From TrEMBL:
Reaction equations catalysed: a hydroperoxide + [thioredoxin]-dithiol = an alcohol + [thioredoxin]-disulfide + H2O
UniProt record similarity statement: Belongs to the peroxiredoxin family. BCP/PrxQ subfamily.
Organism: Streptomyces durbertensis
Enzyme class: oxidoreductase
Signal peptide residue numbers: none
Domain of life: Bacteria
InterPro entries reported for this sequence: AhpC/TSA, Peroxiredoxin_BCP/PrxQ, Thioredoxin-like_sf, Thioredoxin_domain
Protein name listed in UniProt: thioredoxin-dependent peroxiredoxin
Length: 164
């Protein structure tokens, strides 16, 4: 397994297919490609999670989705990344009203590049905070993945950008 990027190092560019729920219920699931290269200039939260509709992942993504305003106050966007298909992500987003982009890393190439691909579970639950200049600002990679980093913890780390 590759090692995770080190804090301060540039985060490699990648593009993944995904989608985001927009509008009112039942909402439009807007599909498209998401590229880190197109995202420079704003902080980015990359939340890798093992699977759609699993208990801890659902709790994590619902927490982040309901806290999107707090992320926006920090100037940050949040992308959820897992190995399931965009179709699976659409169903997951609709079922739980998730309002952040969910990206499909079906071949786990991005998870491998970030050093979070794991045999058996697909990938380790992890969060990477990418600075506006594309460097890694902070990371957390779970050993077991039974818990996740809270909205408060992430916005605390993101506050460093607004203090600059």
């Amino acid at each position: 397994m590759a090692s995770t990027p080190r804090v301060g190092a540039p985060v490699g560019d990648f593009t993944l297919p995904g989608g985001v729920l927009r509008g009112e219920d039942p909402g439009l699931f807007e599909r498209g490609d998401y590229s880190t290269a197109d995202h420079r200039g704003r902080p980015l939260v990359l939340a890798f999670y093992p699977g759609d509709n699993t208990p801890v992942c659902t709790k994590q993504l619902c927490s982040y989705s309901s806290g999107l305003e707090a992320f926006a106050e920090c100037g940050a966007d949040v992308w959820g990344i897992s190995p399931q298909s965009v179709d699976s992500h659409e169903e997951f987003a609709r079922r739980h009203g998730l309002r952040m982009p969910l990206l499909a890393d079906e071949d786990r190439a991005v998870a491998r590049a970030f050093g979070v691909a794991a045999p058996g579970i697909g990938l380790r639950r992890s969060v990477f905070l990418v600075a506006p200049d594309g460097t890694l600002h902070w990371k957390h990679v779970a050993l077991l993945g039974a818990t996740f980093q809270s909205l408060d913890k992430l916005t605390e780390k993101l506050a460093a950008f607004s203090e600059r």
